[in-house]
Design goal:
With 376 residues, the protein is of the alpha/beta class. It contains 14 helices and 14 strands. It is globular.
Length: 376
């Protein structure tokens, strides 16, 4: 969670208390580190409150507050978990006296605790993909999302497609609170990947290994091609299923599984590949890792989901979600056409330049100042 609290009470004009679990190092936690470490230039000081974790994530918050509550998923134990969190958060709000609260996620316990403990402090909520997906699948999660949105003066969403989904989940009751602030990434000084000769591609899939990311589509597509190789970088509950699938499809010699990499290490690996496969099946908040790949010069073959074509532009090619045959055709087309690879390489870099994290921070800062001052 983020609370921006003024360290010197009078020197920093605004403070916000953002909230986020410390683990895992998924897109939302990385996004928080990118954005909130840049908000200091806009007059904010951030305190990062988090649930217990392994302590391995290298975030950018020198001031942190670890909460004692033990996380509980949706189900019979969730209400007691939310009550415990709310008691802790009331104490943090009382001690830090933030001018503004930023609650990350619209459907999880920590954001709900802030919604219940914020009192007269204005709260700005930030939507991420996992909470919106949960609210489409679980009635309890949908109720939590509605309570958080109801308690917020503004709700930040990364794309028009996600704004439409949040609006649907809240029955259109708070349409005027939804504000699209496109996500961004730290841009490298220069791309590291270059189009290479040859007609056998080395492909990469990077991210959380869960059902919605549909890494199995990438493996099934590879099995319908000849000679190409795939490196899967990430961790998650689908790993065993994916390794078994690679063996069953007789592509275990062409699929390499590697554990999650810190982003700087991942960036160094991009030069080893010819394209990224982005195979999300139902909903994608923004696709930050795909934009990062583009920034380093990699074309992206991506699922044609609402909002993704806008985010990734002409620096890639799309296929119907969950269709390995269509993806295999794109892979073979890219492999057989070096000229297309050159064009997509240039378009990927140009598109990524429109997703600068500094623009995201500036937009969020302006919205935060308006929320603190009671304007919209």
């Amino acid at each position: 969670m983020h609370a921006t609290v003024p360290t010197h009470r009078i020197q920093l004009p605004s403070s916000a208390l953002p909230q986020q679990a410390l683990e895992p190092s998924c897109g939302s936690t990385i996004w928080c580190s990118d954005v909130y470490t840049r908000l200091t230039g806009h007059g904010f000081h951030t305190v990062f409150a988090h649930l217990p974790g392994t302590g391995t994530w290298q975030h950018g918050f020198p001031a942190t507050a670890e909460l004692a509550a033990h996380k509980a998923p949706y189900g019979p134990g969730f209400d007691a978990y939310a009550d415990t969190l709310t008691d802790e958060i009331r104490g943090i709000v009382r001690d830090h006296r933030p001018d503004l609260i930023h609650a990350q996620h619209l459907g999880f316990g920590l954001a709900l605790a802030f919604a219940r403990a914020c009192g007269d402090t204005p709260m700005l909520a930030v939507a991420h993909g996992t909470d919106v997906i949960a609210a489409t699948e679980h009635q309890q999660a949908r109720a939590v999302l509605n309570e958080i949105v109801n308690a917020s003066v503004s709700v930040v969403v990364p794309s028009a497609a996600m704004a439409a989904e949040v609006d649907r989940l809240t029955g259109g009751a708070h349409t005027d609170r939804l504000v699209v602030v496109p996500w961004g990434v730290p841009l490298p000084a220069a791309p590291t990947a270059r189009p290479r000769a040859g007609n056998r591609l080395h492909l990469v899939h990077a991210g959380r290994l869960d059902a919605n990311k549909s890494t199995l589509t990438a493996i099934e597509a590879l099995a319908r091609t000849t000679g190409h190789r795939l490196t899967v970088i990430g961790t998650g509950n689908e790993l065993e299923t994916l390794t078994q699938l690679a063996t069953a499809l007789d592509v275990a010699d062409r699929v390499v599984f590697e554990p999650f990499l810190p982003r700087q290490d991942l960036f160094k690996r991009f030069s080893d590949f010819d394209a990224m496969l982005f195979t999300t099946r139902t909903l994608e908040a923004y696709g930050l890792v795909a934009v990062e790949a583009q920034a380093h010069g990699l074309p992206v073959l991506f699922s044609d989901l609402p909002g993704l074509a806008t985010t990734l532009g002409t620096g890639g090619m799309s296929f119907p979600p969950g269709d390995p045959g269509a993806l295999a055709s794109l892979i073979d087309h890219l492999a057989a056409d070096p000229a297309t690879r050159q064009v997509l390489h240039r378009e990927a870099i140009a598109n990524a330049r429109t997703h600068d994290i500094n623009h995201t921070a500036a937009h969020l800062a302006a919205l935060s100042h308006a929320a603190r001052e009671g304007t919209r």
